[in-house]
Amino acid sequence: MSDEVGSVPQFRSDVTVELVRSAAADSDVIWAARVSTAGEQSLEALQQDPEKSKGLINFLMRDRHGTPFEHNSMTFFISAPIFVFREFHRHRSGWSYNEESGRYRELQPVFYVPGEERKLVQQGRPGRYEFVDGTPEQTKVVSEAMEASYRASYQAYQEMLDAGVAREVARAVLPVGLFSSMYATCNARSLMHFLSLRTKDERATVPSFPQREIEMVAEQMEAEWAKLMPLTHAAFNTHGRVAP
């Protein structure tokens, strides 16, 4: 999230993802897979015979030999509503997190309000439901109700801080629609598992039903990863978007 924005609430319908550090390439997968037979020669092999290396990555993905996909690292800086992070933190294996703390800094009044394209109405029963567009009236109700609630909660937060109440106590009044920020570090295997659950894609052999807001984060992370490891990303799509 940006630096101090003052006490006037701001409302956002987007999320942001920035790749801040990476040590991730398709050659890392080849190196790890061939270490028992070729060792350091694997990088040279990738450069000399890319089709063979592409075939090896596809073989590993198809037959779910997962560990070669763990020898890499990506660190993302993510700004999103708190409720997105509560879902995000369910992903534990292969992930490291550091989120901004409301105990040690005054939290800024940046809040999430769905954009007009966000589907608002749930139809059907659990396991077989779908989301459809809301009416203009429903969109208006959502925006007005959220903004009014956010303004009131942040005013209460400020009143407690002004009265000398500790930040860690005052923050309890703030809603999960408040924007937070975190660093998230993962490897390609853990990211693929995240993407298999947090994106909806027609190529997936196992259906997923992500909440749209965390899918918005996942889509941006996937775009960055695809640039770093194009062969691995292509194999992930070819073999049903299932983590090996």
Automatic annotation (TrEMBL):
Top-level taxon of origin: Bacteria
E.C. number: 2.1.1.148
PROSITE patterns reported in the protein's UniProt record: THYX
Record-listed FAD binding positions: 67, 90-92, 99, 187-189, 193
Cofactor dependency: FAD
Chemical reaction(s) catalysed: dUMP + (6R)-5,10-methylene-5,6,7,8-tetrahydrofolate + NADPH + H(+) = dTMP + (6S)-5,6,7,8-tetrahydrofolate + NADP(+)
SUPFAM superfamilies registered for this protein in UniProt: Thymidylate synthase-complementing protein Thy1
Class in the EC hierarchy, top level: transferase
Active site: 198 (involved in ionization of n3 of dump, leading to its activation)
GO molecular function, one term: thymidylate synthase (FAD) activity
Cofactor: binding details: Binds 4 FAD per tetramer. Each FAD binding site is formed by three monomers.
Pathway info: Pyrimidine metabolism; dTTP biosynthesis
InterPro entries, sorted: Thymidylate_synthase_ThyX, Thymidylate_synthase_ThyX_sf
Keywords in alphabetical order: FAD, Flavoprotein, Methyltransferase, NADP, Nucleotide biosynthesis, Transferase
Entries under Pfam families matching the protein: Thy1
Magnesium found in the keyword field: no
GO BP terms, alphabetized: dTMP biosynthetic process; dTTP biosynthetic process; methylation
Binding site for dUMP: 87-90, 99-103, 171, 198
Family of the protein in this entry: Belongs to the thymidylate synthase ThyX family.
Free-text function comment from the UniProt entry: Catalyzes the reductive methylation of 2'-deoxyuridine-5'-monophosphate (dUMP) to 2'-deoxythymidine-5'-monophosphate (dTMP) while utilizing 5,10-methylenetetrahydrofolate (mTHF) as the methyl donor, and NADPH and FADH(2) as the reductant.
Self-association state and partner proteins as the record states: Homotetramer.
Name of the protein in its database record: Flavin-dependent thymidylate synthase
The organism of origin for this protein: Kitasatospora atroaurantiaca
Encoding gene per record: thyX
